[in-house]
Amino acid sequence: MADLRILLAADLHLGGPVAAPDPEMEASAGNAREQSLERMVELSRQHSVALVLLPGDVFHTPEPPLGAILALQKALAAWRDMGAQVFISPGNHDPWLPGGLWESWPETEGLTIFSSESQGVELAEMGLWVAGVAHSSEQETEDLSWLLPPPPPGRTGLAVLHANLSGTPKPGKHEPYAPAVLQNLLSATFDLWALGHIHIPQEMGQHPKVIYAGTPQGAHLGETGPRGAWLLTLSEGALSAELVNLAPLVFHDLVLDDLMPLGDPAALVARLKEKLASDASPWPQEHCLRLKLTGPSPLWRLLEREDPEVLAASLKRELGLAGLVLDLSCLCPPVNAQALATRPDVLGRALALLARVDDDDAILLDLEQEFIGLLHPDTRRLSDDERLDWMKGLLDETRSLTLRDLWQGGSEDGDAN
């Protein structure tokens, strides 16, 4: 049998927002999700894809806007015309609801939308068994992986599921809907677990293949790096997988804290270009960067004196970015804060106190408890470790402000005037 090509993509969130931190990005951000779907269709055409697996959160809400529905209908028609079979397992954002969108979706040749009743579909001509089940609510609490009917003997089994594997790396708040255990998946008789829900593309197992598709388009500056769809090849019973970078808009989050060797603007730009080098994509991409410059820098006077919007625009132009969010709150003069902390003046005493707090987490935690009522509700909801990291970030900002406001110049080793 000839090699079989499979496209895997999840968490398209059609109709959902994509952040535009820079006003000039609003048009491209607004079209990014639909454009990523168009690129998946083109990728399928280029590689003669026979099977498309979409494990959940195809839509951002159970009642998506017209444009999102039309975008999926257009893609499904294109896949049908090229002879591809499409399987959708609705997730927590777009669950299978009585009388809802999926139940009323028009029957289409080559399209299977799994319902809340688990189902297996045999594709005898391909030697495949595709099984899936939908979330029946926006807060599915059951482990759905146990419900999937196993493949019959002699069939390559593909499981399509929206689920949360315990211990999976996932930034942000992903609720543990449809919780599953990786070891249970690895011991099952399926050859592939095509998973959705976690937005980071990642392979969790090789035999069988366990793949989180990730989202093909990051939603905001917290969803960074290459995003796209997986191109799988089934050859003589063996599966291989490749992530194809196709997101129209790529977000980056960079903290640059080794600034002392960068003594002129050209060196700073060169370092940033080096850090931003990313995997190539066969499609044009725009890039948006959240950049934090922190610590001592020989360029601090130049960067501090310029209007922040003008400075950001200059860097954005030099780096070829669609958007730039610039944070200089922890940038400070090129001095040795530790040496300055030994001085008997106000600057020295302030730096010594900050150093003491920095070395003793208990002091930070006491401060946090003292001011807990003044914190923003989102900050209060952070875990203990997350709040401690947040407090340490405030400490860094305070140290930078102290140096900027109280240091009057002098040598970099702390012998200031």
Automatic annotation (TrEMBL):
<protein>
    <submittedName>
        <fullName>DNA repair exonuclease</fullName>
    </submittedName>
</protein>
<dbReference type="GO" id="GO:0004527">
    <property type="term" value="F:exonuclease activity"/>
</dbReference>
<keyword id="KW-0269">Exonuclease</keyword>
<keyword id="KW-0540">Nuclease</keyword>
<keyword id="KW-0378">Hydrolase</keyword>
<feature type="domain" description="Calcineurin-like phosphoesterase">
    <location>
        <begin position="4"/>
        <end position="201"/>
    </location>
</feature>
<dbReference type="InterPro" id="IPR029052">
    <property type="entry name" value="Metallo-depent_PP-like"/>
</dbReference>
<dbReference type="InterPro" id="IPR004843">
    <property type="entry name" value="Calcineurin-like_PHP"/>
</dbReference>
<dbReference type="Pfam" id="PF00149">
    <property type="entry name" value="Metallophos"/>
</dbReference>
<dbReference type="InterPro" id="IPR041796">
    <property type="entry name" value="Mre11_N"/>
</dbReference>
<dbReference type="InterPro" id="IPR050535">
    <property type="entry name" value="DNA_Repair-Maintenance_Comp"/>
</dbReference>
